[in-house]
Design brief:
Chain lengths: ~375, ~375
Amino acid sequence: MKYLDEYRDSGVAAKILAEMRRIQTRPWVLMEVCGGQTHSIVKHGIDHLLPQGVELVHGPGCPVCVTPLEMIDKAHAIARCQNVIFCSFGDMLRVPGSDGDLFTIKSLGGDVRIVYSPLDCLKIARANPDKQVVFFAIGFETTAPANAMLAWRAREDKVNNLSLLVSHVLVPPALEAILAAPDNRVNGFLGPGHVCAVMGYSEYEPISARFHVPIVITGFEPIDILHGVLMTLQQLEEGRATVENQYSRILDRSGNVPAQSLIGKVFEVGDRKWRGIGSIPLSGYRLRAEFARHDAEKIFDVAEIATLEPTICISGEILRGIKKPHDCPAFGTQCSPQHPLGATMVSAEGACAAYYTYGRHLNPQGTDALHQIDSVPASVVHG
Amino acid sequence: MAIAEEIVNLKEEEKISPVFGSCPLPIFDHKQIVLGHGSGGKLTSELIENIFLPAFSNPILDKLDDQALLTIGGARLAFTTDSFVVTPIFFPGGDIGRLAVHGTVNDLAMSGARPLYLSAAFILEEGLRVEDLRRVVESMRAAAADSGVHFVTGDTKVVNRGKGDQIFITTTGIGVVDPNVNISASRAQPGDCILLSGTIGDHGMAIMSQREGLEFESEIASDCASLHDLVAQMLATPSETPDFIHCLRDPTRGGVATTLNEIAKASHSGMLLQEHAIPVRESVRGACEILGLDPLYVANEGKLLAIVAPEMGEAVLARLHRHPLGQDAAIIGEVVAAHPGMVLMKTGIGGTRVLDVMFGEQLPRIC
């Protein structure tokens, strides 16, 4: 495919890998922040191409995974209401709340619809003036501009039967939380390419300086990721810690300024709960007071819903890079994509689901005999 | 109809029992059917294993092939049935009627059978335009004529507006199998070549792009076609190896990945694919990238997977290439002794990944 195949070239990959082996002198732990990167890594089998001693841990950048159970339960309570059309991105439909998922609600007669663009909800709301149309506005900074545009247009065009259930999270506070933890193992980050296409990367510079950690803003194709790993290794081996941009064909330091401006008009920064991590101060967006009329949390009576996360799940440690999916006793047994116990098994982008789908056979400690047959040594698997 | 209405009037917890009796097995977590139960993936298998097989089990059904092979009065017959519920009913490259003929003809052909006769049952929704029905039926007539089969029996029912989706069609087919042909998913063995008759994902993405109103530079058309002639040509490949075609499947719902998993499971062998060898049209790859879908899990309606004795791989491939429906055919991998029951793939950049069975519906990813 034009513009993509050159980023999936095995010859280029081999050259980058050779250069990594040439410069690497000791083990390093890198975290890819974004769920899209995790997906690409396991889909293309990148993790076990890396030189021994270069370990990738999967960060908290899957928006579906980090949406707290409580917010899922609120969404489900709204979707169950009469006269509601509940609109969502596709992969939120399978996320289980305390009682079933959106597919289940749909099968019981709820009007649940998948949209590709938040703005599709405007059309749906206009076509159904007697119904309340609710959009589940989740995601990182990447989806924030489109979600903000929906709220903006709803207010400007007076589409009063349209509201947003907002659960937006921000990357920089999560990185700080990971780095500030006493048990942190991460030496360097592959920064989130799509998030920075919107926000630029200047806000990562103080984090890199304060924690003396390299952050390389990285794309999503296999060559992007290998290149991002190489750039991070170069910094680590040279003792540098700065923000670099591997994804320069897409973004620059300042990002998409009009999008940032729209986000600022619609959202304000506030505390947010993260599934598996807990509450992080000033780590998310909520609708500004001017948009109260389009704020589903204010329109529907869901404020009282509070849900505790299951205790057996180690997704919090996985999201912070302290543990790998294979370290969980429930992985592949009690917990699978069919029956997810926690955040990271929920979405295809979640680290556990990605391991389950693509990398299960490489598990040296797997409980299923089928998963033990591959002869790839454990040291390679885990970097 | 009468039974269905009775069920609707029952209380929630009583709904399953009148149809299936009291089932001692724990019935999965879902208390009602969800869309994923019809996806051809794991949820569908659960339904078959937990509800249908316990009730209907017999040696022929238990093989779980796409068709039943019956020996009646010395004749070997292939027998199959399939229901079609596609939205929209007209799409680039076909329509529900054409699909209903090709789908059943292909299920027969995958046993090596020569398809002979079909039945058709129509469930029509009140309000369906007669002109649309006429178009669908005309399309079925043409597809049947192309496939050399005849409709010999049928049925029609009409349901209230809102109780159906324009038109549902069920076709049942019967064909005759040459006594020398021995094709079964269980016959795949290490060393065998895995052949694919052409590009993947065309049907699923044609439907998806229509349904979602997505417009691409070049229109994606369904690959909907009858494969019986292609199979006949493959079987006629000159060979000193008897029964050199070990297994045939058409990768419909769940796509190539799910179908190969079924074969791997049935034959207790492993599959190793080469990503770079798998033909995917540029437009389909592009559409899949945009929607976050994997073409290996997208439905096909005019493609087949063949597991062939290793020494015959190239010869069968050459036969495929000579047929209009096999021009993009390729050898995409081999059956291996390692990792029995699992399908692995060498990726384009040299990594390895597992191709698992799809769980339910393939969902577009958020980013």
